[in-house]
Amino acid sequence: MSIPSLIDYQLPVSGEYPLSKVKWKINVNSAALLIHDMQEYFLDYYDRDSQLIRQVIQNISELKQWCKQNNIPVFYTAQPAIQADDDRQLLNDMWGPGITAHPERKQIVAQLTPEDNDKVLDKWRYSAFFRSNLKQQLAEQHRNQLIICGVYAHIGVLQTAADAFMNGIQPFVVSDAVADFSRDDHLYALRYVQRNLGMASELTQIIQ
Q1: Which of 1, 20, 107, 201 has the fewest other C-beta atoms within 10 Å?
Q2: d(C-alpha 135, C-alpha 133), whole Å
């Protein structure tokens, strides 16, 4: 009923998932970055010395730096430390109390601490768009592309990408700046994005 203990795996590479049906390219004047659920609580399920998470954090850090250099706005999602049952609803059935049982682990990992001009969105469901004003903030800044990184690829990252697509916002999932329960789950998410709703790109394809 809770997140399982997670083990390291080798990050997928582009040849392991199909080419996208679309050929969108990131425009620095149209894009925003979303760093999804990189809270200590969610990363605690990996080994303390996880090489996978170290690499993903490093890749997200490089991606954020590139976004800052190009004046691309940066958003974060973070679940509130305390969530009433009325707020969690079916999440309790699926995952138990979640972060509410460990409110001391609510912080975003230190290496990715939000800066003063970053926006942190309260996260209530898998998708970053649920009960947030992310869509409105993107519209106000004339941003119709969303670069997505973080955890977990086949749950919140994928659902956020799907919501972006359905709201007319082009989603770009950074394939080596997300992590998942397993390599199979990771590949599932990337394949789904490529086949149905967006682009999965490696970090070097974005910041080159």
Answers
A1: 1
A2: 6
Q: What digits encode the pLDDT tens for the residues 168-192?
A: 999 999 999 999 999 999 999 999 9
DSSP 40: H
Here the tokens at position 93 are: 């059935």
* Farthest CA pair distance, the chain: 45
Q: Model-level pTM greater than 0.85?
A: yes
Distance CA 147, CA 163 (A): 13
Known catalytic residue: 37?
A: yes
Tokens of 102: 């460990």
- Apex CA 10: angle with CA 200 and CA 208, to 5°? 45
Confidence of residue 2 (pLDDT cuts 50, 70, 90): confident
Residues 19-32: what's their mean pLDDT?
96
Q: Do residues 187 and 152 lie in contact, with contact meaning Cβ atoms separated by under 8 Å?
A: no
Cα separation, 128 vs 76, whole angstroms: 9
pLDDT digits (tens, 9 = 90+) for 48-98: 899 999 999 999 999 999 999 999 999 999 999 888 888 889 988 888 887
CATH of 26-207 among 3.40.50.850, 3.30.390.50, 3.10.50.40, 3.40.50.300: 3.40.50.850
Tokens of 145: 């592309």
CA distance 206 to 66: 9
